[in-house]
Amino acid sequence: MSFRTLYDVQQLLKRFGTFVHVGKRIWDIELMSSEIRRLYEGGLIDKQTFIRVQLVLKREHRLEEKKQEEKDRSK
Description:
By secondary structure, the chain is mainly alpha-helical.
């Protein structure tokens, strides 16, 4: 499976019965990262999948931080 978007990561987590919705997108991303780490440490996903997913999550996290900074500056 290829991982390019946050939706792809959500679908992977869903396969393991994990649904993440905290309310704020950046919090969702952080929780997903934690859950992915637990899957990797538990041997449920391989290293390559772990790395690809973490790259997607880090990119999405940076985008959310940038969006928040822009929002804060416009106040």
